[in-house]
Amino acid sequence: SYVLTQPPSVSVAPGQTATITCGGDNIGRKTVHWYQHKAGQAPVLVVYDDKARPSGIPERFSGSNFGNTATLTINRVEAGDEAGYFCQVWDPPLFGGGTELTVL
Amino acid sequence: EVQLVESGGGLVQRGGSLRLSCAASGFSVSSSYMSWVRQAPGKGLDWVSLIYSGGGTYYADSVKGRFTTSRDNLNNMVFLQMNSLRAEDTAVYYCARAELEYIDSWGQGTLVTVSS
């Protein structure tokens, strides 16, 4: 079965750039979506269709997908970005294991 | 405005059953892909089930044969019938609407605890 692999944690200082990866076999041939999940809250879609942003999501959030790796990039990281981030593909619907972003 | 409100969670013994409900408003469940997603304590998101607009269903291997998803188009609700519950089914269960291939709306979640 298909597997999505994410690093368990990423740490970054405020104002710096956070890069969160999602690995999968030829994932570049799939469409990847990203969610932000804070404790006690419902997840929020931050990137869909590899690189599109829903309305209300800051331009600091961007995505890319090529080869065996999809990437979520958060520029100018803020304290409020601290959360779990999950990648997701379809057919079958599947999430990556999640990456906990810590803002130092 | 799209709203999803789950109910039915609680404490249940191992081997028992529980039925989760999801009341939807602001859209029609019959024309959407409705999902149940769970998060066990300290774990990631796990896509449990999906009911397509056409009525077909998908289940994760971990729940296949034990869980059943259904919907009531008249009352705009979605359900998850969970049987033969295991300790590893303990999680917060979210009702979610999938727009094409991704989830664009989530409920606040309901906690299911399976005691061993």
Description:
The complex is a heterodimer of chains A (104) and B (116). Chain A has strands spanning 9-12, 18-23, 33-37, 44-47, 61-66, 69-74, 83-89, 94-95, 99-103. With 104 residues, chain A is an all-beta fold. In chain A, strands 1, 3, 4, 7, 8 and 9 form a six-stranded mixed sheet that branches. Chain A has a three-stranded antiparallel sheet with strand order 2-6-5, with no helix packed on it. Chain A is globular. The termini of chain A are far apart. With 116 residues, chain B is mainly β. Chain B has strands at 3-7, 10-13, 18-25, 33-39, 45-51, 57-59, 67-72, 77-82, 91-99, 102-106, 110-115. In chain B, the strands form two sheets. In chain B, strands 2, 4, 5, 6, 9, 10 and 11 form a seven-stranded mixed sheet that branches. The N and C termini of chain B lie far apart (40 Å). In chain B, 38% of the residues are buried. The mean pLDDT of chain B is 96. The interface between A and B is medium-sized, with 26 and 20 residues.
Please sum up the structure shown.
Chain A is mostly beta strands. Chain A has no helices and nine strands. Chain B has strands at 3-7, 10-13, 18-25, 33-39, 45-51, 57-59, 67-72, 77-82, 91-99, 102-106, 110-115.
Work out the helix count of chain A: 0
Instruction: Give helix and strand order of chain B, one letter per element, not per position.
Output: EEEEEEEEEEE
The count of DSSP E runs of length 2 or more, i.e. the number of strands of chain B, is 11
Global shape of chain B: globular
Largest sheet of chain B: 7 strands, mixed
**Which strand-content bin applies to the residues of chain A?**
35-45%
Structural class of chain A: mainly beta
Mean residue pLDDT of chain A: 96
Order of helices and strands of chain A: EEEEEEEEE
Distance separating the two termini of chain B: 40 Å
Runs of chain B in which pLDDT lies below 50 for 5 or more consecutive residues are: none
Largest sheet of chain A: 6 strands, mixed
For the terminal residues of chain A, how far apart are their CA atoms? 36 Å
- Per DSSP E runs of 2 or more residues, the count of β-strands of chain A stands at 9
- What is Rg of chain A? 13 Å
Q: Give the oligomeric state of the chains in this entry, treating copies of one chain as homo and distinct chains as hetero.
A: heterodimer
Helix fraction of chain B, binned, reads: under 10%
